[in-house]
Amino acid sequence: MFQPCSKLCSSSPGMNHQLQFLMWLVTIKCLWSADSVFSHIPGQGLKQVEPEFLAPLENHTVTQGRDIHFTCVVNHLGQYKVAWIKSDTKAILAIHTHLVAHNSRLSVSHNGHNAWKLMVSNVQKNDSGTYMCQINTDPMRSQMGNLEVVIPPDILNEEGPDDYVAVEGGLLKVRCKSTGIPEPSVSWRRENYTHIVFRQEGREKQSVMKYDGETLLLMNV
User: Fold this and answer.
1) Is residue 187 part of a domain?
2) With 0-12 CB in 10 A as exposed, 13-18 as middle and 19+ as buried, what is 72?
3) Which of 51, 75, 102, 217 is the most buried (most CB within 10 A)?
């Protein structure tokens, strides 16, 4: 690709020094414009510069329903292409600025310089995992970032008030089911902040301010 430049700077019989100098300036400009792909190494001439990542791929921890993006910054890309891959499923999401995955919540963009973005809108639980920005060099070059989608905890009220009625001296079993990512922990406290009392036959009475667990079993109420 630099043949025209080399021809420009070659001298010919009768060419005056001023014209040679102008040709040399044009040659330097040609080489400078290709700086992102080639570099001059003393004794070796022009040598192709391999692509390099300028910053690590970020990690994200977001609540379900939010929007996020990964930014892959590459210098000296040259004729190579940037691809986005979901590592855990080996699914190719996009190549350069072309979206491959059939997912309306995904999009890709390029700033015209050295930054490529993969955007995920309205993130869902199945979007969690590791994402890879890959360059098709030989061997390939890649970097990875992780997406963790968090679902806020919620209580599943499957039982009604009648399920918590017990006769005096009997047994009362109450259960609190919850959902969320990561899995939430369940604790019991009394509304008036007094102790929860556990009574079992043949054992001493025990009392606690807080009980951890999904199911609370009270005997001899």
Assistant:
1) yes
2) buried
3) 51
Instruction: Indicate whether 124 belongs to any domain.
Output: yes
- pTM, two decimal places: 0.64
d(CA 134, CA 132): 6
Please state the separation of Cα 66 from the chain's center in Å.
Answer: 13
Residue 4 lies in a domain: no
In whole angstroms, give the CA distance from residue 83 to residue 97.
Answer: 9
Task: Look at strands 68-75 and 171-175 and give their pairing.
Answer: unpaired
- Sheet with 68-75: strands ordered across: 52-53, 68-75, 115-120, 106-110
**What are the tokens at 95?**
């190549």
Tell me the per-residue pLDDT of 31-84, one tens digit each, with 9 for 90 and over: 333 333 444 445 555 567 889 999 999 999 999 999 999 999 999 998 899 999
Give the chain's radius of gyration (CA, Å).
33
Record the tokens describing residue 89, joined without a space.
């499923």
More confident residue, 188 or 148: 148
d(CA 99, CA 86): 13
The verdict on 138 and 113 lying in the same domain is yes
Give residue 71's Cα distance to chain centre.
9
Cis preceding-peptide flag for 51 (omega within 30 of 0):
no
Using alpha carbons only, give the angle 215, 219, 221 rounded to the nearest 5 degrees: 110
How far apart, in Å, are the Cα atoms of 2 and each of 33, 44, 162, 180? 11, 15, 86, 60
